[in-house]
Amino acid sequence: MSNFGATLFDWAHAPLEELREKLLDLFCEVAYREGDFLLSSGQRSTYYINGKQVTLHPQGGLGVGRMLLTLVPEDAIAVAGLTLGADPLVTAASVVAAYEARSLTALIVRKEAKGHGTQVYIEGPTLPGGSPVVVLEDVVTTGQSAMKAVDRLREAGYQVDQVISLVDRQQGGAEFYQQQGLKFQAVFTIDDVQQRYQQRLAHGATS
């Protein structure tokens, strides 16, 4: 596992613009690959982004939590997402929020109902009906994955008006969310990642 910037960069306190640049480098080092890939959407692609290589990275997870929290509205009571990709995102954002004296519950939405016990779709504290919840996603392609979480949360009585992603592949997700009446923001676009990747490649910096 990469210890990218572990001793040279203060992931917890660095200014957000510096943090954003460092995260972009980390995506290029450990998460972005070029080749022939089949995506979860069923589409084929000449590149792949494994967001979990960043979100489960010790320094990257902290940086992701800080960056996502800047986009979560102050009135949001919780962040949620579809397992497995969103699990580290909602946890990181919730923990970082606690360090900033902000209460933000983490909710995990199952793809299928739990097969025993309470048989719930949503894991985490039960919140009052109408509670504003923001859905988080690591990489958005068509937008269908995060939409499953939106639907489950709305069925549970929560108010969901926004999706936030780490990376937007710019393959229809943003337009889809707009059609669904959802606000959408991304920390990076695929253009950001690919431009930095090529810059690093030219300088021999990409692993």
Topology:
Blueprint: H1 16-31, E1 32-38, E2 44-49, H2 52-55, H3 58-69, E3 78-82, H4 87-99, E4 105-109, E5 122-123, E6 132-140, H5 144-155, E7 159-168, H6 173-179, E8 183-189, H7 190-202
Parallel strand pairs: 3-4, 3-6, 6-7, 7-8
Antiparallel strand pairs: 1-2, 4-5
Helix pairs in contact: 1-3, 1-7, 3-4
Summarize the amount of helix as a percent range.
Answer: 25-40%
Q: Which residue ranges are poorly predicted, with pLDDT under 50 across at least 5 consecutive positions?
A: none
CATH fold name of the domain at 55-189: Rossmann fold
CATH architecture of the domain at 55-189: 3-Layer(aba) Sandwich
Question: What characterizes the major β-sheet?
Answer: 6 strands, mixed
Structural class: alpha/beta
What is the overall shape?
globular
Strand content: 15-25%
Which value, in Å, is the CA radius of gyration? Answer: 17 Å
N-to-C SSE series?
Answer: HEEHHEHEEEHEHEH
Our measurement of the CA-to-CA distance between the termini, rounded to an integer number of angstroms, reads: 12 Å
Q: Number of helical segments?
A: 7
**Number of beta strands:** 8
* Mean residue pLDDT: 92
Q: What is the CATH class name of the domain at 55-189?
A: Alpha Beta
- The largest sheet has its strands arranged as 5-4-3-6-7-8
Question: What is the gist of this entry?
Answer:
With 207 residues, this protein is α/β, with parallel strands linked by helices. Helices cover 37% and strands 25% of the residues.
